[in-house]
Amino acid sequence: MGKSTRPSPFFRPRLLARAVITPCLASAGLLSLPNLAFAGGGGMPVVVPGNIVLQQGTDPGGGAAVVDMNPPFVNAAGEVGFTGFLQDGDHYLFVGGAVVWEGSDNPDGAFLFDLEPRMDSSGAGGWVYPIDINGADALYTDAGPFAAAGDPFPPVDGGTYSFLGNPSMNADGAILFVGVLDDDDDGAFDRLALIRSPDGTAASVEIVYAGGDVVDGETVMPDGIDFDYSVSEDGAHLGTILNMVGDGTTNTFVRVDDAFVAREGDPTPDGDNWDNFDLLAVNANGSYLLTGDTDGPDGTDEFVAFNGTVVVREGDTLAGVEISPGSALRFAALNDYDQAAFAWARPTANGFRETVFYACDANDVTNQTIPVFTTIDTLLDVDGDEVGDYTILDVTLSDAIVGKGIGETPFVYAEVLLADAKFTQTNAMIEVPVTCCGNSFVNGIEECDDANDDDTDACLSTCVAASCGDGFLQAGVEECDDANDDDTDECPGSCLPASCGDGFVQEGVEDCDDGNGDPGDGCETDCTVSSGSEGSSGGESSGGGDTTEGADTSGSASGSASGSASGTATLTGGDDGDSADESGSSGSEGSGGAADDAGGCGCASDRPTRAAWSLFALGVLGLRRRRR
To answer: How many Cα atoms are found within 13 Å in the side-chain-facing hemisphere of 279?
Structure first.
């Protein structure tokens, strides 16, 4: 693709234009086709399940319809966040399924406008986004205005901000952003800086890197802080692209934490040289995903690299999809499982297409990557009937941009242009489930992966480890499994068939079951109630009371209460009649706990916590396993 000529960050234009495809521009000949789904020319379209998070034309709750949306940013809680505009000219901030803020909500009455794409949120209610406040570049947070151009910059005596933008927010609410500093408040742009606020307030800001800094013997240019930095959700790892003083062909460096990991002009593992760096993403493991160009031939020079190794490049075929010469990256994201998502815009024989890929393991992109969807050729099923409801026309990014379209949940998020059956086009943020289950590698949230459909072995077809209560009979381990917690049916929670002496009263079969082999204690060894016995251990009151209901007023109770595993007590004796009431019925407090010593289910407590995200993505959305 050749070396990028990105403008200086001092004059970098704001990314306000949205790439909306009109019917006449979508693809040559599109409208001449009776069914848009066949526009790809490759036979039947692919149908993928998914959800529309927010769609143009809908009212998110404030009274005005949505016009568009910006790139997605998934937070530490797995919630997707983004900004956009409303039909009445207002803007909104969307996080975790709802609009949490509109510009007109500002209680101070300040005029908020000139929205920028990048935002972020903590997953615990915090958020930050860039906006002009009464005409001044600024950041706004859930706590109100953070700082604006002209405000003091505390680390520099007499210094002020000239610009604030491109913010990130960690899970603990810490904020990072890029600022232009006016060191002497003379109205001049003196230097760019990457700035951190550990507690999310302007008072605590500190410089991470700034123009003029000397870093490992290299001096940062005044405008040498690239806007495409990345910080892990836990705040432990930071990736930056720095432009240093020196030869313009070798002066750009990629730095992760405290080390330079790549430099323009240095050789790649493939034998060519790094030439240009674009997008960067880091995660909680300190791993990093990097995009850009090498100095190799046009048609093979654009790349995605993971931890310094090129894992896919222009000209490759990935997961059966040709990334033909002339292809360009749209976005790239990395989660804490070392899984990646990236989109390539690529020319094909049937027209321009964009394919979103999901790498189940970024260490093995070649063998563990799946295509999520391809524009024009993919239909989105939003109602679960396996029939496409919309055609995905476009990933609405006009250029590569930093975003975070994945988190530690089994979904990919993308801003797209959709067309319904009447070819009505709308912008939308969509959520598409992804699964790596069945590729024989244990990826992400999976507990196991044996690459087969056998639900009677140690690994279920959902890539969840077999366990008592999952509803599948594990061969050689369980004798029954009815997937419920009812210990009074034929299959208790122990996954052993109900039997006399297991401590559970099998409904309609046993009269009692005290879990021991002692005869004459009120419950016989054949799980029938004792007909009566004398003495302190007897199950019958000495006064002639009913042994199954307790002592009545005609006799004095002599015995003690004991409970079955279900917590139901049977009076089999008493102490001076203290446990008997006038109606002749009684029970022992807490007696249901006896089940634990009688072979009760040791697996029941695991059921609510077993791979909740996997069950949601694979069950609720009806995913089928991808088998190879």
So the answer is: 25
Give the amino acid at 361.
D
CATH number (3.30.160, 2.130.10, 3.40.395, 2.60.40) of 9-433 reads 2.130.10
* Secondary structure (3-state) at 515: coil
Tell which residue, 275, 139, 154, has the closest CA to residue 205: 154
In angstroms, rounded to a whole number, what is the distance separating the alpha carbons of residues 485 and 562?
22
Residue 200, CB-side half-sphere exposure with 13 Å CA sphere: 22
Helix, strand counts (H, E) of the chain: 2, 37
Q: Do 72 and 80 form a contact (C-beta atoms < 8 A)?
A: yes
- Per the CB < 8 A criterion, the answer to whether 472 and 455 are in contact is yes
DSSP symbol at 268: P
pLDDT tens, position by position, 250-295: 999 999 999 999 999 999 999 999 999 999 999 999 999 999 999 9
**Concatenated DSSP letters of 3-27:** ---PPPGGGPPP-----PPPHHHHS
β-pair type (144-148, 136-141): antiparallel
pLDDT digits (tens, 9 = 90+) for 342-356: 999 999 999 999 999
CA atoms 4, 9, 10, 11: torsion sign: positive
pTM of the complete model: 0.78
Q: β-pairing, 252-256 with 259-263?
A: antiparallel
Domain boundaries, the chain: 9-433, 465-610
Q: Which residue has the tokens 């693809």?
A: 27
Signed CA dihedral, 332, 224, 256, 175: sign only: negative
Interval 449-489: pLDDT, tens = 999 999 999 999 999 999 999 999 999 999 999 999 999 99
- DSSP lists the bridge partners of residue 69 as none
Average pLDDT, the chain: 83
What span, in angstroms and rounded, lies between the C-alpha atoms of 553 and 21? 87
- Counting residues of the chain whose pLDDT is more than 90, the rounded percentage is 74
Q: Does the structure show a pLDDT above 70 at 22? A: no
Q: What is the mean pLDDT of residues 319-329?
A: 97
Asked if 527 and 511 count as a contact pair (C-beta separation under 8 A), the reply is yes
- Is residue 386 packed enough to be buried (19+ CB in 10 Å), middle (13-18) or exposed (0-12)? exposed
Closest to 91 in 3D by CA, of 132, 46, 48, 52: 132
Longest dimension (CA), the chain: 106
Query: What is each CA distance from 593 to 511, 550, 566, 567, 596, in whole angstroms?
Result: 19, 21, 8, 7, 6
CA distance linking residue 168 with residue 231, whole number of Å: 8
Pairing mode, strands 46-49 and 378-381: parallel
Encode pLDDT of 160-170 as tens digits: 999 999 999 99
How far apart, in Å, do the first and last CA atoms of the chain sit? 34
Report residue 386 as tokens: 């396996």
pLDDT at 402: 74
* Pick from 391, 398, 400, 384: nearest CA to 622: 384
Strands 309-313 and 561-563: unpaired
Q: In Å, what is the CA distance from 212 to each residue of 153, 193, 223?
A: 17, 10, 9
- Give the span between the Cα atoms of 418 and 414, in whole angstroms: 12
CA pair distance 230, 255, nearest whole angstrom: 11
